[in-house]
């Protein structure tokens, strides 16, 4: 997509939008693993990650880079969505090959590229559903239109994104039912999430295990618990009544804490800083030069 066909900066979501209010909600950390699993279960994405990603060997670095990318195209970090779109297209253009079953793949396959974008929208919806206040129908529709604008800025063509949230939600269910699969990447990602590697090489292993073992159990609970049941079954992941009870108790606790938390604790730190910067910029009095320019116009 050329720049002329992309939305201008003013049409992208900003302060007060549904996307800004929901995307970086702090409880989203519990859904990060779910989003990754939904993405790599797509045959094209899974093959690309298996052959070209460093996630398995350097999961912390890869997770941070992904976080920064979303901050760019959602909250305008750096050059914003348009610049990030160009960077992502360049980054993915050479990620291609043949998977283990002989199927050819390319990371810029339009369907797969749009699928990743849809999982990010679903991530917002499910975070609100499980750990906050579910979005209203109006909020869902506004969010999706905002996310379609972001998608256009990232290089996704309009006809590869459903026109409304009802269609997007139905398409999500269809892809889960007919396309997603168990593959080596789903195994690797779940292992990386539930058996996290030390972020610092020289951190004593016994000390790391004091954190890693309970953290891995928690991530497995929230990741497996929020996967679509049909995909959970396809991946061979067990889920018991006891697991469900534990998940429900956790969700109730997180929901209560999040509702009462002060602003800085309700969002991911970097996102909150960017949101605060924009709010302050909107309140800033116009400089004399800006006033003169406006009068001249």
From TrEMBL:
The keyword Oxidoreductase applies. The keyword Oxidoreductase applies. Signal peptide: none annotated. Keywords: Oxidoreductase. It is an enzyme of class 1 (oxidoreductase). Pfam families: MPAB_Lcp_cat. Its EC number is 1.-.-.-. Residues 20-256 form the ER-bound oxygenase mpaB/mpaB'/Rubber oxygenase catalytic domain. InterPro entries: MPAB/Lcp_cat_dom (IPR018713). One of its GO terms (molecular function) is oxidoreductase activity. It comes from the Bacteria. This is Oxygenase MpaB family protein.
């Amino acid at each position: 997509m050329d720049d002329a066909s992309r939305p201008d900066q003013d049409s992208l979501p900003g302060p007060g939008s549904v996307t800004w209010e929901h995307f970086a909600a702090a409880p989203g950390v519990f859904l990060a693993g779910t989003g990754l699993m939904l993405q790599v279960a797509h045959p094209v994405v899974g093959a690309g990650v298996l052959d070209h990603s460093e996630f398995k060997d350097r999961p912390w670095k890869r997770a941070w880079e992904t976080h920064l990318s979303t901050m760019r195209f959602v909250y305008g970090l750096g050059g914003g969505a348009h610049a990030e779109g160009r960077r992502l297209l360049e980054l993915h253009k050479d990620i291609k090959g043949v998977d283990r079953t002989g199927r050819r793949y390319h990371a810029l396959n339009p369907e797969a590229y749009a699928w990743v974008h849809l999982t990010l929208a679903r991530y917002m919806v499910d975070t609100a559903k499980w750990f906050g206040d579910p979005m209203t129908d109006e909020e869902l529709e506004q969010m999706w239109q905002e996310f379609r604008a972001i998608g256009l800025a990232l290089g996704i063509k309009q006809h590869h994104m459903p026109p409304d949230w009802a269609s997007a939600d139905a398409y999500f269910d269809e892809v889960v039912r007919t396309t997603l699969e168990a593959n080596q990447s789903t195994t690797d990602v779940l292992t990386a999430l539930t058996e996290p590697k030390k972020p610092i090489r020289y951190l004593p292993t016994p000390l790391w295990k004091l954190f890693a073992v309970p953290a891995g159990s928690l991530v497995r609970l929230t990741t497996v618990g929020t996967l679509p049941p049909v995909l959970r079954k396809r991946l061979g992941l067990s889920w018991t009544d006891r697991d469900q009870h534990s998940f429900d108790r956790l969700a109730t606790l997180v929901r209560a804490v999040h509702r009462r938390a002060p602003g800085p604790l309700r969002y991911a730190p970097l996102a909150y800083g960017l949101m605060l910067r924009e709010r302050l910029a909107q309140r800033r009095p116009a400089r004399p030069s800006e006033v003169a320019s406006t009068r001249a116009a």
